[in-house]
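Record format v2
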Amino acid sequence: GENVEQHPSTLSVQEGDSAVIKCTYSDSASNYFPWYKQELGKRPQLIIDIRSNVGEKKDQRIAVTLNKTAKHFSLHITETQPEDSAVYFCAASRSGGTSYGKLTFGQGTILTVHP
Amino acid sequence: DTGVSQDPRHKITKRGQNVTFRCDPISEHNRLYWYRQTLGQGPEFLTYFQNEAQLEKSRLLSDRFSAERPKGSFSTLEIQRTEQGDSAMYLCASSTNGLAGFNEQFFGPGTRLTVL
């Protein structure tokens, strides 16, 4: 089955700096890669996703890049703000057969943005 | 609130007791997923429904676990003879049957289970 590795496990930055979180996946058939933000005691919320036919996607201060050959994808947050502090999870899934949409998550990155 | 809802939000039980959780997905979503999240880890897939059909179950789902979605709307997850290792957050998510399988999963607030 799919295995997703996420690094780093913790990341501390100063407000205004950039933050980068990296994930690798093992299943070359995976074709959908979402990123979720989870604040303490709250549900995971999708912040951005990318599909395997796209190499990069940007939404305001957040961007995701995908390298299918190397099987890794990254989350980039620019101009970080204290409200960006949370746990971030990457995930991977494949379409087709009975595995439609089943997500395999990374271990999470605790991001702390210091004012 | 028209999002995914789960009930109860918290459940404390004694080892050996049975517990049942409920998930109400977003009304037009025909896909429903159950995940389990332990402290400091990402959610782990448990099972998946397309309408009322349970199409996939993880090996994590032992014989003590059963899930249903009788009318293709709400779903229940039952754990029989609970063990301390079952203590976790149980998350439900739903999605539409998106084009080529790409579909955003919306998560519920979860049910936190504590087994004493």
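Chain A is about 0% helix and 55% strand.
The radius of gyration of chain A is 14 Å.
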